[in-house]
Design brief:
Helix content is 38%, strand content 17%. By secondary structure, it is an alpha/beta fold. The strands form 3 sheets. Strands 4-10-9-8-7-5-6 form a 7-stranded mixed beta sheet, sandwiched between helices. The longest helix has 19 residues, at 315-333. Bound molecules: pyridoxal-5'-phosphate (PLP).
């Protein structure tokens, strides 16, 4: 490593810090290229990317099939707005309908927009179908949730870092303990229109609820005429070893609405959507919702390719098998007394320590060629591309496990 290269890294960091608002605190690495499970920094060092852009890159960086879809479509037609039809959007909606098993799909761009769309759908269904009195609709959310960064969404977060001094907030949200069906059912009132929950809480540090929770929430919603919306923006599209995380509990846990984002484009483009039942999705009529970029031809071509890659390469099943392998190695080889627990569902992984060393561990891993992100001081989570081979995964674990054992 030359001083020249180091100063290049520092120069790029300084530039971003100087001109950018400081709403992130990234690791001190500047990336310039990605391929499959790997990224390279501007000094030419290769890293295993074990964050995968918070699971947006399930298909691996710059997957050739998705890149081709992006490039080819960009040359032909990129944006029409929804004032006109385009010849690509229908195929995306049909593909998402096929994969989710829902008849209706509404395309947006970012995850947070998908969440906002689901909130609108549940509220309107509540007023029009459940006959809740005007302005009284309640939506139940979980403590520890992360659903995005809009003012409405941060208003029902219990993380002060997310909501402090951004109020006043949208009323109509009720928080309950995550993982507790009885608490959720007790919070349901005649004004409850929906439940919005992550099937595994990703940003909270990969909090996996007990078996039966998802089906239990579904049953409580059905019994009380309340809609269920799983936010599968992070857990969906193969990450947890099933196409959708709810499928770990089968059709018993099927929601009325599901929100997708992140890997819906394999990291090439912001694409999100809500998919749901006719009854709920039919609350939208012309003029009631929209997005200039939502459903654009590039997004559509990219999303179709991204979903085909998940299927063609059997990535959900691969994640399931590789997750078992990781679990076995974690159980056997993580020997530090500082270990609190490991959490594994497919390739959605977290190691929790007893003490707040997670950031130091992430920095140590960075220096050894693995990029991962600490969260809540005590937890490191790992989310490699689902395209990673077993050999590559073992190579990364051969770095990760001994490093964690030093803490
Ligand atoms: C990332 C994420 C979001 C927000 O998505 P953005 O594209 O960043 O707006 C919402 N919900 C969950 C569960 C997420 O992981």
């Amino acid at each position: 490593m030359t001083t020249d290269q180091q100063s290049k890294t520092q120069g790029l960091i300084d530039q971003a810090m100087h001109f950018g608002a400081h709403n992130y605190h990234p690791l001190e690495v500047v990336l310039t290229r990605g391929e499959g499970p790997f990224v390279w920094d501007v000094e030419g060092r290769r890293y295993f990317d074990f964050l995968s852009a918070y699971s947006a890159v399930n298909q691996g960086h710059c997957h050739p099939k998705i890149v081709k879809a992006l490039v080819d479509q960009s040359r032909v037609l990129a944006l029409t707005s929804r004032a006109f039809h385009n010849d690509k959007m229908g195929a995306m909606l049909e593909k998402i309908a096929e994969v989710t098993g829902f008849p209706k799909v509404l395309p947006m761009n970012t995850g947070a927009e998908g969440v906002e769309t689901a909130i609108k759908a549940m509220r309107r269904w509540g007023y029009r179908n459940k006959k809740v009195a005007e302005g009284k609709a309640e939506i139940i959310v979980a403590l520890g949730n992360f659903h995005g960064r809009t003012t409405t969404i941060v208003g029902f977060s219990d993380d002060p870092g997310s909501y402090q001094d951004f109020g006043p907030f949208t009323p109509g949200f009720v928080q309950v303990e995550y993982g507790d069906v009885a608490a959720l059912e007790a919070a349901i009132t005649p004004n409850t229109v929906g439940v919005l929950i992550e099937p595994i809480q990703g940003e909270a540090g990969v909090k996996i609820p007990a078996d039966g929770y998802l089906a239990g929430v579904r049953a409580a919603c059905s019994k009380n005429n309340v809609l269920l919306c799983w936010d599968e923006i992070q857990t969906g599209l193969g990450r947890t070893g099933k196409m959708f995380c709810w499928q770990h509990e089968g059709e018993e846990a099927r929601p009325d609405l599901v929100i997708l984002g992140k890997a819906l484009s394999g990291g090439l483009y912001p694409v999100s959507c809500v998919a749901g039942t006719e009854e709920v999705m039919n609350v939208f009529d012309p003029g009631s919702h929209g997005s200039t970029y939502g459903g654009n031809p590039v997004a559509a071509a990219v999303a179709v390719a991204a979903l085909e890659v998940l299927e063609e390469e059997d990535l959900p099943n691969k994640a399931l098998a590789l997750g078992e392998h990781v679990k076995a190695r974690f159980d056997k080889e993580i020997t530090t007394d500082n270990l609190a627990e490991t959490r594994v569902r497919g390739l959605m992984l977290a190691v929790e320590f007893k003490t707040g060393i997670a950031h130091d561990a992430a920095v140590a891993l960075q220096h050894k060629g693995v990029l991962a992100k600490d969260t809540h001081e005590t937890t490191i989570r790992f989310a490699p591309a689902l395209t990673i081979t077993k050999e590559q995964l073992d190579e990364a674990l051969d770095i990760i496990i001994p490093t964690l054992n030093e803490f």
